[in-house]
Design brief:
Elements lengths: L1 E4 L4 H12 L4 E5 L14 E4 L5 H8 L4 E4 L9 H21 L4 E7 L9 H14 L4 E7 L2 E2 L6 H10 L3 E5 L5 E2 L2 E2 H12 L7 E5 L5 E2 H12 L4 E5 L1 H14 L7 H6 L10 H6 L6 H5 L8 H10 L7
Parallel strand pairs: 1-2, 1-4, 2-3, 4-5, 5-6, 6-11, 7-10, 8-13
Antiparallel strand pairs: 9-12
Helix pairs in contact: 1-6, 2-3, 3-4, 5-7, 5-12
Length: 315
Amino acid sequence: MILVTGATGFVGRQLVAQLMAEGRAVRCLLPDYRLKNLPWEKLPEIVVGSLLDEETLFQATTGVHVIIHLESAQWWGRPRDLERVELGGLRGLITAARAARVGRIITLSHLGASSSSAYALLRYKGLVEDQVRASGLAYTVIRSGILFGEEDAFINHIAMTMRVTPLVFLMPGRGEVVLHPLSVQDVVTATITSLDAVDTVDTVLEIGGAEYITLEDLIHTVMRVTGTSRLIVSVPPYILRWLTTIYSRLFPRSLMTGQWLDILAANRSAPLGNTYTYFGLHPRRLEDTLLTYMPQKRYFWSALRYTIRRRPRGI
C-alpha cells in the first residue's frame, strides 16, 4: 500500500492516476473540503482528515509500506503556513509512520533547498529534508527544478501576469538567474521509478529538464508561445516583494508571491544528465511542451478566477 499526501495537488493528481493505472494499491489522505470534484475516474482508497490529526495519521499509515509526501503550502501560503504545513504536518506524519513501521518515505523538494537559506521557501524545504533524513525511515528526497505543466503555478502565472498587466512585464532583477524547468509528467515518472530502484534509497537526488534557461529567456518564450508582446522592465526584487505584499492585502491570492520570488533568488540547476542517470528518463523539452497547451488557454479569465479564489484552508 502506498500512501500519498497532497494527492489533489499539481503533482499528486497525475501521480495517483499513474500509480492506479499500473495497478498499485493507493491510499490518499485528504481533508474533507478536498473531496468535491476529485480528479480521478476510479477512486483510490481515501482517508479523510488532516496531517495535524494524530488519530487520522495512525489510520492513514496502518498497513502502508511507502509514503509519498507531497502536501505543501508553497504557492499559496504565508511563512506561518509554510511552518505549519511543511514542518508541523511532517513531524506528525513521521511519528505515525514510525509507529506503523512504514518502510520508506519519498518527498519532493526544490533545487537550492537548504535549512540555512535566507529565503523562506528554500529554508523550509531544507528543514523538511533535514527532518526526513533524521526520521529513522528509509527515504528518498527528489530535488527538482521548477515544474511546468498545464496547471502549474509558475510559468502559467507569468502568462497570467502578462494578460492583466498592459504594455509592460515587471521582471525581478536583470533576468540572469538560471532555471532548470522539468515537466510534471517527468517528475511523476521519476517518483514512480524510485519506488522500485534500490539505489535511490537514502539519497537526495537532484534533477531537471532537458535544458537550462534564464528568466529573461523564459519570459520571451512565454510571450512567443502565447502570442503576447510586452516591454520587459527590470525591477529590483525587493520592490516586487513590497508590491506583492500590497497586492495580497487587496485580493485573496497573488499571482506573484514571496515564494515565487524566492525561486528566482539564485541559480537553480542540476547536471543535465542526472534525470537519465537516476531514472533512465529523457525529459521533455520546455517550449515543445508549452506549445501543446498554452496557445489555447485564456489567461486573462484564468487570472481573474485565481485572484478571487479563497486561499486553501491548509491541512
